[in-house]
Amino acid sequence: MLLAAIDLGSNSFRLEIGEAMGSHIARNGYWKETVRLAAGLGPDGLLSRRAIDSACVCLARMNERLRGIDPAHVRAVGTQTLRQAINGEQFLAEAQKALGFPIEIISGREEARLIFEGCTRTLPSSKRRRLVVDIGGASTEVIAGRGFEPVHAESFKIGCVATTLRYFPDGRIDRASFRRAQVACAAELEEAQAAYRRYGWDEAYGSSGTIGAAAVILRNQGWADGSVTAAGLARLVDALIGFADTRHVEFEGIKSERAEVLVGGIATLAAVFETFGIREMWPAKGALRAGLLYDLLGRRESHDVRDATVLRWQQRFGADRALAAMVGTTARKLYHALLPQASEEAVRTLAFASQLHEIGFAISHSDYHKHSAYLVRNGDLPGFSTSDQERVAELVLGQRA
Predict the structure, then answer these.
(1) Where are the beta strands (DSSP E) in 138-253?
(2) Kind and range of the H or E element at 14?
(3) Which residues pair with 18 in a beta bridge?
């Protein structure tokens, strides 16, 4: 069984195709294009026409790679830049037409959860506590957990493209501008540091291009042996300042498109190291795309994380599960009578809405359907994209006038 995951990141778009072999997924194909979507987001919060067109051209090329794969086995998601874009719906309409498959926008915490699963699936099995960091183009995810289960998962609005554009707009690199960038990134992280430090970790991993690039540079320069250390990172910062201009940054083994935004990524990474007191971090394969593939496999193999989330919410808000099951059965029969060829995912969405339709009683019996819809739309539901939550919330809201 072939599965495909498309990550519409703020810096790069990536497509990964995997072949499911039991509970393991082997890579079958991988493609990446640097799109710099975050650079196309203006101060008014609108994605530029040029950015939308560039993204659609890239997605049309990816469509060619996806021919012959069951549409139910393909999942495409957008991240921080699309979470911010005011004209996100316009982008999605054009992008979905170019890709030929639906595109979901996921929340920061859901992105963090998927990154942790993708990263840990590619690491040796261990009961040790792990910290995983992913520095993207416009957001940075920090996750702590054990096994495949995250305990703390947060997304912060800092990243290699956004930080480079904001603090090095003219390309000039000096110690003062670098320090301003690092301090600003640390300010985004500091409120979360207490929870992560209380939990602690035994080993730290980085699953992004920034961290992989830093590890390559440190190894090539003889400043570390495959990992990113605090001491090696300090030497890398000095080297970047020595280039004096983002357009002059050049390191052996680092592509030019990565070098152009490296200073913003390293400022973010330095802030992560300083804020959380990290001394050493190892680069890791697998991130959001791998997490999406394993999440897809779970859905196909009846291990859908959304089922556990819904059950947890029913228990949390004291929902009458027996009544919810009866409502779900009736709703499904009516739906099939109206639309016999309904898709499996549409039926699942209706089932989730039925299971959660009365959770608003925990707030008030008056207008409980509005409270239920508000909770679903704005809550943290692992396994659900923001698009999923919106669809379920609309069904919950529409159960009565």
Answers:
(1) 140-146, 149-156, 203-206, 228-229
(2) strand 12-21
(3) 3, 27
* Interatomic CA distance for residues 113 and 91, integer angstroms: 25
Exposed/middle/buried for residue 44 (C-beta within 10 Å: 0-12, 13-18, 19+): exposed
Positive/negative CA dihedral, 349, 352, 358, 361: negative
Other CB atoms within 10 A of residue 43 CB: 5
Cα(372)–Cα(44) distance, integer angstroms: 33
Count of CB atoms situated within 10 Å of the CB of 149: 10
pLDDT band at 342 (very low <50, low <70, confident <90, very high): confident
Quick: pLDDT tens for 274-301. Answer: 999 999 999 998 889 999 999 999 988 8
In terms of Cβ atoms closer than 10 Å to its own Cβ (0-12, 13-18, 19+), residue 117 is: buried
27's enclosing H/E stretch is strand 24-34
> 12 pairs with which residues across the strands?
34
Integer-rounded Cα radius of gyration of the chain = 22
> For the chain, which domains are there?
2-105 (3.30.420.40), 123-284 (3.30.420.150), 304-397 (1.10.3210.10)
Confidence (pTM): 0.89
Question: What does the pLDDT look like over 43-97, one tens digit per residue?
Answer: 999 999 999 999 999 999 999 999 999 999 999 999 999 999 999 999 999 999 9
3-state secondary structure of 6: strand
Strand partners, 133: 142, 206
**DSSP assignment letter at 17:** E
Tokens of 125: 């099995």
Q: CA dist 29 to 4, 111, 278, Å?
A: 9, 22, 34
Q: For residues 175-180, give the mean pLDDT.
A: 97
